[in-house]
UniProtKB/TrEMBL annotation:
<dbReference type="InterPro" id="IPR050114">
    <property type="entry name" value="UPF0173_UPF0282_UlaG_hydrolase"/>
</dbReference>
<dbReference type="InterPro" id="IPR001279">
    <property type="entry name" value="Metallo-B-lactamas"/>
</dbReference>
<dbReference type="InterPro" id="IPR036866">
    <property type="entry name" value="RibonucZ/Hydroxyglut_hydro"/>
</dbReference>
<feature type="domain" description="Metallo-beta-lactamase">
    <location>
        <begin position="7"/>
        <end position="209"/>
    </location>
</feature>
<protein>
    <submittedName>
        <fullName>L-ascorbate metabolism protein UlaG, beta-lactamase superfamily</fullName>
    </submittedName>
</protein>
<dbReference type="GO" id="GO:0016787">
    <property type="term" value="F:hydrolase activity"/>
</dbReference>
<keyword id="KW-0378">Hydrolase</keyword>
<dbReference type="Pfam" id="PF12706">
    <property type="entry name" value="Lactamase_B_2"/>
</dbReference>
Length: 241
C-alpha cells in the first residue's frame, strides 16, 4: 500500500506499507518567509495556507535544505528525536539544529522495512546548478517502488534512475522555479512531459511544487494545458498509488 498527501509545495505525507514519511517540511505561516531573492516578483512566502491535516509520521525525509523544503518553522516544531533522513552534506546542519537521530543517506539505508536510496538531481543548468548546491531525489522501495525526483531539471540522470529502478510511481517537482537571470531550476511543463514519455503508460506521474513560492512561475493550469496523463493534486489532496 502506498499513498501521498500533498500539503503544499513539496511538503508531502508519504505512506508506504506501515511507514509514513514527512517529506520536505515547510511549516511556516503564509508570509512568514521573505520573497526568494532575485525573483521576478516580490511576493512573500508561503503564498498559501498549510492544510489542516493530521501531521503524524514516523520519519522526516529531506531532499535538501533550501528554506522552501526545510524552513525555520520545521526546525522549531519537529521533535528533536524524530529520525531525519537527508543528504550527507547536510547532516551536520540538522544536528546543529538540535536533532538527535540524523541518518545521512550515502547510497541506501533501511528504515522500518523501506529501503531508501538517494538518487542524483540537478537543481538548474550550468553554473547556476553549481551555485544552488547539492540536491537529491530518493527511491523508496517497499511493497511498491516510488521515485521522488526532488528539485531537479530534466536530464539524463532522471531517465537513468527510471530505467534502473522501474518505479511504480514518480513524483516530480514542477513549477518552473526561476530567477531573473538564467533558465528554470525545477521542471517546466515540457520537462514533466519528458518524464511522462519516459515511464510506462500505467505508471502514475504526480506533480507538485506549484503556486506556493513566489519564483515558481508555472501554475497547475499551465501544466494541465501542456501535458496529458499527469496527476496534479490540490493542497491537502491524497492520492492512492
Amino acid at each position: 500500500m502506498a499513498a501521498i498527501q500533498l500539503l503544499r509545495h513539496a511538503t508531502l505525507l508519504f505512506d508506504l506499507d506501515d511507514t509514513t514519511f514527512l517529506v520536505d517540511p515547510m511549516l511556516s505561516e503564509p508570509g512568514g518567509i521573505p520573497p526568494i531573492p532575485n525573483s521576478p516578483n516580490d511576493r512573500e512566502n508561503p503564498r498559501v495556507d498549510l492544510p489542516d491535516v493530521d501531521l503524524t509520521y514516523d520519519a522526516v525525509l529531506v531532499t535538501h535544505r533550501h528554506r522552501d523544503h526545510f524552513d525555520d518553522a520545521a526546525a522549531d516544531q519537529l521533535p528533536a528525536d524524530v529520525p531525519i533522513l537527508c543528504q550527507p552534506e547536510e547532516a551536520e546542519e540538522f544536528r546543529e539544529d538540535g536533532f538527535t537521530d540524523v541518518r545521512a543517506v550515502e547510497s541506501t539505508i533501511a528504515f522500518e522495512g523501506t529501503d531508501v536510496t538517494r538518487t542524483p538531481a540537478r537543481h538548474g543548468h550550468g553554473e547556476l546548478a553549481e551555485q544552488m548546491g547539492p540536491s537529491s531525489g530518493y527511491i523508496l522501495d517497499g511493497s511498491q517502488t516510488i521515485y521522488l525526483a526532488g528539485d531537479t531539471v530534466w536530464y539524463e540522470a532522471v531517465s537513468e534512475t527510471v530505467d534502473a529502478h522501474d518505479p511504480d510511481a514518480v513524483i516530480v517537482n514542477a513549477g518552473a522555479a526561476q530567477f531573473v537571470e538564467g533558465e528554470p531550476i525545477t521542471m517546466t511543463p515540457e520537462e514533466v512531459g519528458s518524464v511522462r514519455e519516459t515511464v510506462a503508460d500505467d505508471v502514475p506521474v504526480i506533480a507538485d511544487h506549484m503556486e506556493a513560492i513566489n519564483h515558481c512561475l508555472a501554475t497547475r493550469a499551465d501544466l494541465a494545458a501542456a501535458v496529458d496523463g499527469v496527476a496534479i493534486p490540490d493542497d491537502g489532496e491524497r492520492i492512492e498509488l
